[in-house]
Write a structure and sequence with these properties.
The protein is of the alpha+beta class. It has 14 helices and 18 strands. The protein folds into 2 domains: about 350 residues, Sandwich (Jelly Rolls), CATH 2.60.120.260; about 230 residues, Histidine kinase-like ATPase, C-terminal domain (Heat Shock Protein 90), CATH 3.30.565.10. The chain is rod-shaped and about 165 Å long.
């Protein structure tokens, strides 16, 4: 049995206060729409309904002439699931005082069905309508042109022949007027009622991408909930924007839209609770369970329970959001942790939009066109995202401030370290100068000072001849030059100091009939010796050459300089060998050899003496390359004149 549409209650004709508030807050552009209406446009308020044979789009088909039922516009009707396809004719009349001289048009602000349109029996256009192979649910407004010759003075008839199947249907906002005037109104309605939903879906997509990425990096619960709500809104918009689909997919698309809206509502309620620091798992699970109840019952009844769910289950979702928003508002007034004021304002707007949509479904108010939730949903997402983005920007600013403060502190520390480093360098310079003075004092004490004091004692006793005295002075001068070479050598340049020693000793050896062979082929240009080591090594080599000159009676002396080993095991190897008569056993412990051993011991070197009668003598010195240890570093010595005198008396 076919179902006839019923008239909406008379109360629906009186706009309620809540409708006016909702329209003012959610659909401000609707006021502009009303302002754009002109006196030339003729609104249609009534229609006559009659059933006709199937396939109303055939051009040869005419109305069957059945009884016509009058209805007031806007008109909403429904057909239960499983009902057959119905074909109807809807006739509307409008009056003209004169035939217009320009093109007119008919604007259908909201019609869920398509159909065949004619004016005074003249075909003006067709819009895809429901059929056995397609389900149609138009969301956009429609505009059809009417040629002026089709209109007559007085009464004019607009005929819509269409078909409809199961589900809810609506027809509202029909106006006839000049094309130039209705076009602007149509464009505005198209943006508000269709394009805006696309914009909302785009906003949701961006929100899902941004906060999904943030949640993936930081695992923050609010970011996850916001990304989930945005995904739900995308699915809802996709289901709502689908206008023509195969009939077998209609139930699944509708179920997807219902599920997405339920999940969006539950996610919103949980988010408001989390923002109020009310993270209670039991209450959250109850919210999710209630949200899932509607889609489950709808699926179980093959959408047959949808009319009842719209009146019983959907108000529960509105109540849950209202409770969550009310708790947040109360906590905000008490100065407790609560959602951002912008979020609370958006939640109130969302609740008003939900009440408007529920009033329209329950036929308590006349509100046709795009659901108010389509406007409030993106606003809610933006409101939720704004405090999070603001907090993120605040964190970035705090990080920038912290980095700037850290850079300032680092610069201050750098300046402090620089000043400390300069003071340390000055202190090191003082220390180095003191060490140099100590080294010079040590060298003067061990060498020239000792020799001069000894010579003075010998001269005072008259124990030396003029030739011996001259020899003593020459040795003193050599010792002074040796000390000067060691002190003047830059960066412990041992090779240069040894070269100077060779330059002074070679003429004396040649004058004594001794040939000097100097082999430094295995001695690198740079040797990593401590400056305190250079002079003792020079004195040892000088002492070895002097002993060979005085006592060996050799004809040849060979000096071999080399660096043995590698890495940290490198050592300086010096050999002074002669082919003389050797050193007698009783002279092995003499003062000269004892001085060489003492000097070698002070610098941590090894001194070995090899001698054989009529074969010669070899002095072998091995010193490790690298900084000398504190235990072997020469200690500070004050020139003790009395000790030198006592030692000279014993000679």
């Amino acid at each position: 049995m076919q179902e006839r549409p019923s008239l909406p209650p008379s109360a629906a004709r009186r706009p309620a206060l809540v409708l006016r508030i909702g329209q003012a807050l959610l659909v401000a552009a609707a006021l502009l729409f009303g302002a754009m209406a002109t006196a030339s446009a003729v609104p249609i308020r009534k229609l006559e309904w009659s059933y006709i044979a199937p396939d109303p789009l055939a051009t040869t088909q005419q109305s069957t002439g059945e009884s016509r039922t009058p209805f007031d516009l806007p008109l909403r009707w429904s057909s239960v699931e499983g009902s057959p396809l119905h074909t109807v004719a809807m006739r509307m009349h409008f009056q003209l005082s004169a035939v217009p001289d320009r093109t007119w048009a008919v604007l259908l602000s909201h019609t869920s069905e398509g159909g065949r349109f004619s004016v005074n029996g003249h075909f003006i256009g067709a819009i895809a309508a429901e059929s056995a192979t397609r389900h149609v649910s138009w969301r956009r407004p429609q505009l059809l042109a009417i040629d002026a010759p089709m209109l007559v003075e007085g009464d004019n008839e607009l005929l819509i022949e269409t078909s409809y199947g199961p589900g809810s249907h609506a027809l509202a906002g029909i106006e006839v007027g000049p094309m130039s005037e209705l076009w602007n109104q149509y464009a505005l309605q198209f943006v508000l009622e269709y394009v805006w939903t696309w914009i909302g879906a785009t906003i949701a997509l961006l929100t899902a991408l941004v906060f999904g990425a943030l949640w993936w990096r930081r695992r923050e619960a609010i970011s996850k909930l916001l990304a989930l709500a945005a995904l739900c809104w995308i699915v809802y918009c996709a289901a709502w924007l689908v206008e023509i689909i195969p009939p077998e997919y209609r139930l699944w698309v509708r179920l997807a839209g219902m599920t997405a809206m339920a999940a969006f509502s539950a996610t919103l309620a949980v988010t408001l609770m989390r923002l109020s620091s009310l993270s209670r798992r039991r209450e959250e699970w109850l919210i999710w369970a209630y949200a899932a109840l509607g889609p489950v019952l709808s699926l179980a009844s093959s959408m047959g329970a949808d009319p009842y769910l719209s009146l019983s289950w959907q108000p529960g979702l509105i109540l849950i959001i209202a409770i969550a928003a009310g708790v947040g508002l109360y906590r905000r007034t008490q100065g407790l942790v609560a959602p951002h004021p912008l979020v609370l304002i958006a939640a109130v707007i969302l609740l008003l939009a939900a009440l408007i949509d529920f009033g329209s479904v329950a036929r308590l108010i006349n509100f046709e066109g795009t659901p108010a939730m389509n406007f409030a949903g993106p606003l809610m997402l933006a409101a939720l995202a704004t405090p999070l983005v603001d907090g993120f920007i605040k964190i970035l600013r705090e990080a920038e401030a912290a980095r700037a403060e850290l850079e300032t502190r680092v610069r201050e520390r750098e300046q402090l370290l620089k000043r400390n480093f300069e003071r340390l360098r000055a202190s090191e310079r003082v220390t180095v100068e003191a060490q140099e003075r100590q080294r010079i004092m040590q060298d003067m004490h061990d060498g020239l000072g000792s020799q001069l004091m000894s010579s003075l004692m010998l001269v005072e006793r008259g124990a030396v001849s003029n030739e011996q005295f001259a020899q003593i002075l020459r040795e003193s001068i050599d010792d002074m030059r040796l000390a000067i070479d060691a002190l003047a050598a830059e960066d412990a340049d041992l090779a240069a100091a040894l070269g100077n020693l060779r330059f002074r000793m070679e003429p004396r050896l040649r004058a004594a009939g001794m040939e000097l062979t100097w082999d430094a082929r295995r001695l690198p240009e740079e040797i990593g010796l401590h400056p305190d080591v250079v002079l003792p090594i020079l004195r040892i080599v000088q002492e070895a050459l002097t002993n060979a000159l005085k006592h060996s009676r050799a004809r040849a002396v060979r000096v071999t300089l080399a660096v043995e080993g590698s890495g940290e095991a490198q050592s300086l190897d010096i050999r002074v060998a002669d082919n003389g008569r050797g050193i007698a056993e009783e002279r092995v412990g003499g003062r000269g050899l004892l001085n060489m051993r003492n000097r070698a011991q002070k610098i941590g070197a090894q001194l070995k003496l090899e001698t054989a009668p009529n074969v010669g003598t070899t002095v072998h010195l091995r010193a490790r390359i690298g900084p000398i240890s504190p235990s072997t570093r020469p200690q500070q010595t004050v020139l003790n004149t009395q000790a030198i005198i006592e030692r000279a008396r014993q000679q």
